[in-house]
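Backbone shape codes:
===
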Amino acid sequence: MTTESAQYVAPDQNDPAVRKAQEDRLREVWKPPSGWFFRWTDVNNNRIGVWYTLTAFGFMLFAGVLALIMRTQLAVPNNDLVTANTFNQLFTLHGSMMMFLFAVPMFEAVSIILLPQLLGARDLPFPRLSGFGYWSFLIGGVFVSGSIFFDAAPDGGWFMYPPLTTRTDLSGLGADIWMLGLSFIEVSSVAAAVELIVGVLKCRPPGMRLNLMPLYAWYILVVAVMILFAFPPLIAGDVLFEMERLLNWPFFNAEKGGDPLLWQHLFWIFGHPEVYIVFLPSIALFAMLIPTFAQRHLLGYPWIVLAAVGTAFLSFGLWVHHMFTTGLPKISLAFFAAASEAVAIPTGVQIFVFIATLWAGNVKKSTPLLYATGSLAVFVIGGLTGVMVAVAPFDWQAHDTYFIVAHLHYVLIGGTLLPLFAGLYYYWPLVTGKKLSDRMGRTAFWIMFVGMNLTFFPMHLSGLLGMPRRVFTYPEELGIGGLNLASTAGSYMFAAGVLIVCIDLALSPRRPKAPRNPWNAGTLEWLALPDDEDWGIRSVPLIESRYPIWDQKNFVQKVDEGRFFLPDAEEMRRESIITTVLDARPLQVIRLGTPSVKPMMTAVALAGVFILTTYHLYLLSALSGVATLACVLWWLWTGTAEIPEKPTKHIGHGIEVPLYTSGPSAPGWWAMFITMMADATAFSGLVFGYFFFWTIHNDFPPSGVGLNGPGVFWPMVALALTLAGWAATVGAREVHRRGNVGAGRALLVVGIAATLSSLFAGLAGPWYSGLAPELHVYPAIVWTLAIWTAVHAAIGVIMQAYTLARSLAGKMTPVYDADLRNITVYHHFLALTGIVTFCTIGLFPGLA
């Protein structure tokens, strides 16, 4: 024990004055900034989560209004309420908003609120990153959804199939708004995924081993990992899509060697896991509320964890069932049909576990449980029709009909929307301290349940009778006017149920405070008091059970009295505990981000890059890019890797942990690794495109002027320089860690020179070969891979220079070296990117 440790005297938690002083310090540290504007700069995850949730809910209501307009148009044959072009904008924006602006952001928003409390943490590890994600989502969402008011909304469907959408003469500005606006929103989704993964893995309370985690945390971990592998292929497709629209590079133009099917592959590699990305968090809500209302532990904990993982794994092998009608080989159809049917097995396991838990427990009837059971019934119907369309011959008949619309909405409403209402009624007392009305909630449920079935069940029949989807009207002779009128009536009925919920929410502030833990739940989030403080949990507990409130003696009292860990804010800083990944042993006290305008400013600057590019204002877009870089560097320089005033801190019970760690123990290292996994997945989408084109062409690369490959020399020079920059960075980390600061700085200078040289060498091959990317897809994809690698090399140079500057400024030492360790992770991935890129474009055609 250190001298400082030997002098440490634990505060007497039996003394009320001691406890009050601790609470006063916590209250002072965590209070929000004063002033209406500066409150928006706070990065407390609970407040960010509430803003996030309300914003996503608002976008859902707006998308619902668009759906009502569409249903009104389709109520009777030959209706002329809206034009065909307006209808196309309505259904494109409705689908895009429900998927990108409601379903995924809503799960992330709810998780940002619940996870810290479920894990007994003061906050998630990167609250400023959550703030950046929220502002990116808000700005991007307003940009995309507001386009409808200017007759500039996208009109190519939420899937935006080329070539109709990539040809600027056939699609207007809406396609760019969709592509660039939603690409910006995808940045916020990946940012939230990084925050959630690191939060689950590193911010659990002491003792909460992986097998003791609340099931909600397991589900969120699985879903966040899915985002890392599902969203990046779409980002890669977005890059190709916009380069074709803006630069006329023919990735999807069959006349110049492209293929529109590549977009379908990249889109549906994202699109089908997306269904489970929005479904599994809803199942996670069931996993929390069903044990509460059964008043017993959930049965089959290991099985439901394996089922969640299995569902996620299988979901990435299903995307081609959206492409059964595109003429794929029969062996492909058989494989993906089998995988599509197999995913019903882990899904069924989860549903039967919930039923068994209710069967074995002492069920307490409640409004949240009513929504949960009703949503399961709706989802099962959607799952059964999903098995039907997984059979290729049936799909050939039903694929472009309203049968698919009915299936999709049964799955999404039963698997996402109704479960969210169940979670809303369950967790509203936790968020606001007020319960919602049981009478209004049950009335709303039955109206929505009947309205939903009246809306979408007739669509199965109208689809089988021949009504195609994505049409703005239909002839009376088709004989489906009655079915469509019923669907329209049902949609208004469903909207009335949603309106009742909105009224219930609006009336809730007038209601009295609910008692603490009104449902008698057993998990950590219900430690919150009705008048909860901004600092959340009073002391970080020691966990010995999955349901500690039920199982651990005097647990709530001990938490409230500060008898566990970190009961104080002695240094007047926002703090939480970092633990080991597997067994949750305390590793570090982390200093959390405080209220700041930097995340907001960074999001605004980055928004300028995407929005200004949409309107072809490239100079202003470049200036916004420079501003974004400046904001990021300012944010990092002043807000990360801070050298603490003392090396260690007592957290209670005689345990002393560091205030600073680096490498795999630190959350920053994990954040870099996870971010680079997402980046590598996006890059793999581009590499997939290269080999996809190779498989569909007999002559790849083709012969002709402007089509010859970049040769071997320049790619190999670029590869050698990339590896030299990587080796110099790794060497700098090692010699710096041993205390040789001067040698570390010298190696960083060498790394900067080598990495910068690799940037120019990587572009020299396509340049000196005269590759003309507008002539054929081969030079276009070669240039794309080279530019992708060059951009990453430029980012690597900035990281190396930033770390060198930190060292020269005395902000990095051999002990406090998180910056250098983190950029080394980046350069590992940069080296891998260089190997794949330069071997592919320099060697592969010759090997072929």
